[in-house]
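@channel sequence for tomorrow's demo:
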Amino acid sequence: MSMTLNSFAAAFRRNFPDLLGRPILVALSGGADSVALLCLLRDAAADLGCELWAVHVHHHQRGVDADGDAEYCRDLCERL
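structure tokens (generated this afternoon):
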């Protein structure tokens, strides 16, 4: 199933009406799901009246892989 930006915004309005016009914080792991959510929300934020924030928590449990996740998330947020 493909989701367009308009269908995402409409689904967000239906399912999360209490969040419209409010700040949204995305927990960003660096995985496909959280990256997709952040990108969709970034593109729809103005239409939804939301200020968008992201946070990545580096637990230092997976060594170099965790370092890579943190760097990827930081770079993604800077690009967005």
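heads up for whoever presents: The mean pLDDT is 92.
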